[in-house]
Amino acid sequence: MTVPASPTKSSPITAAMPNESSNLASSQSPSTQPSSEQSPQSNRPKPSRFKLTYDILMIVAISIDLLLISIDAILMSNFSSNVAGWLTLSDALNWYQGTLHDPLRTAGGFFTIFLVVELLLRWAIAIKEKVYYRWFFFPFIHWYEVLGCFPQLRALRLFRVVVIGRRLYQLGYQVLPQSWIDRIKFYIDLLLEELSDRVILTAIDNFRVQLTDTKTHKSLIESTIARNRHEIETALLSLLRTELAPKLQALTASPGGNNMLAGAMGEAIKEGLANTPELRRYLRMIPIAGGLIESQLQHVGHNIGENVVIALNERLLDAERLDALMVAIASGVAQIDTNNTALDTLISSIIEDSLTAFEAQIKVQQWKHQDMLNL
Q1: Which residue in 118, 122, 233, 374 has the fewest CB atoms around it within 10 Å?
Q2: Is pLDDT larger for residue 343 or for residue 1?
Q3: What's the whole-model pTM score?
Q4: Per residue in 15-27, pLDDT tens?
Q5: Nearest-CA neighbor of 11 among 143, 122, 134?
Q6: Could you give the CA distance from residue 211 to residue 208 in angstroms, rounded to a whole number?
Q7: What is the pLDDT of residues 283-313, one digit of tens each?
Q8: Containing H/E element for 293?
Q9: How many CB atoms lie within 10 A of CB 129?
Q10: Long-range contacts of 257-265 (CB under 8 A, 24+ apart)
């Protein structure tokens, strides 16, 4: 007995799956139907023997009907007449066309009537048991069955076979050999991969053509930078804090670094004092002590230069001040003007390289690397 689904807890989307109730009396409601991603061996409610037998009989009946329709269409074609003439089988073909063709068409008509009645009966059962959210959802969900009732669209009955076979496979019944299933999946994946690759490659070519337009290219750069200014600032600040800040702080923490900068500054002041002729002239006016004062003055200047550099390092390279400087630099760079030739060239190169790499990856045919073809 099917458990009716409550309208208050179902939705049109979850109730509108074509494989959820397509046999005469489905054993599960849409809310409890297993998804196609679960393995066939997972725990599933087993249908009754009658339902299984009915599904199998429908697969056999529809398969025979489609086979007879295909054979009849081939034998009634002009191509078959020409082939029969070449093989001297015209009498046998004429016997079939005159004797068996009409009974087969009549049998096909009765089978079509049976499918219509069976479809209406399942619709009535679905309405009674409230399988779907609304009563009129049934023909839309089972559209392939509705259209398959028309003689011109009888090939759509194959969808019914596929749906029943897929449901039986999900319930753990081996409808087809596993090797056949693997090969069918392989060729489906191959077809989808080739189609998707063609679509993506065409889109990439169209995008490249659009980038040749100066206005489009400029608009792309401006919109990209405008949308990502905050991210650009964050990334630059992270790089500055990681790479630049430690190296600047090392000047304060390392005695060798201080000695190098401080010594250079001290020597510069000492040379400046030594190369000032006015100072030397005034000092030489002082008898005896002038030369000594000049030497001491240069030494004092050297020490002043070293002390100034050390003091500046300790104050300017303070952690808080240095971080504020990094934030200001990152914020200033993030506000970069997009009307910049170098920036335009850089972004164009990045986009082109990205498209080329993506295109090369798309052109790799992954299905060739599988063992199915034994290449």
Answers
A1: 374
A2: 343
A3: 0.43
A4: 333 444 444 333 3
A5: 134
A6: 5
A7: 767 776 666 777 777 778 878 877 887 777 7
A8: helix 289-316
A9: 17
A10: 258/309, 258/310, 258/313, 261/309, 261/313, 262/305, 262/306, 262/307, 262/309, 262/310, 263/306, 265/305, 265/306, 265/308, 265/309
